[in-house]
Amino acid sequence: TERWMAHVSVHDQDPSNDVPSPKNGKPRKGKRRPKIDVRLVCKHRVPNRGYCIEAKRLYRSDSVSEYVDDEGVGAFICGDYAKDDDCGGMIGYVQSETISRWLPKIEAKLAGQSNLLRTKSGKTWERSGFTGGPRECFASLHKRANGSEIRLFHVMLSFQ
């Protein structure tokens, strides 16, 4: 295993607790809880700090809506995912066309959201990245209903 893995535990399909039902406002329980695709948890901090990542397929015409709406970016903004965190991650795994064809579609959909905060340069999102990381990585900043901000990192991976 990689050395960094000694410091982090990885949880897949990790349920989010205390998420209210849109129908009755009561917390969802059991299998009705939303599940974050991947949660990375630091083993050496108390309380343990996590990093949530949601993944969406980009393969058909409505994929961008799924990526941005309630079960994608929207789940971070409304607090269903990472409600106490100031950052999170989205993975777009491209199964049709090319990454360069999906990027402007996602950017345009994000631009239509009222909670999107513009970057210092006035853009919807900015290219981001880290040494040895994926080439197609971006960051967007959003305002939550409670007034807090969340920065989302978007990584696009090609699976063609």
**Radius of gyration from the CA trace?**
16 Å
Low-pLDDT residue intervals, each spanning 5 or more residues: none
Number of helices: 3
Largest sheet: 8 strands, mixed
Question: How many angstroms does the end-to-end distance come to?
Answer: 27 Å
Described by the principal axes of the CA atoms, the overall outline is globular
- Number of strand segments: 8
| Class based on secondary structure composition and strand pairing | alpha+beta
Listing every helix as H and every strand as E from the N terminus to the C terminus, the arrangement reads: EEEHHEHEEEE
Integer average pLDDT: 85
Q: Roughly what fraction of the amino acids lie in strands? A: 25-35%
Percentage of residues in helical conformation:
10-25%
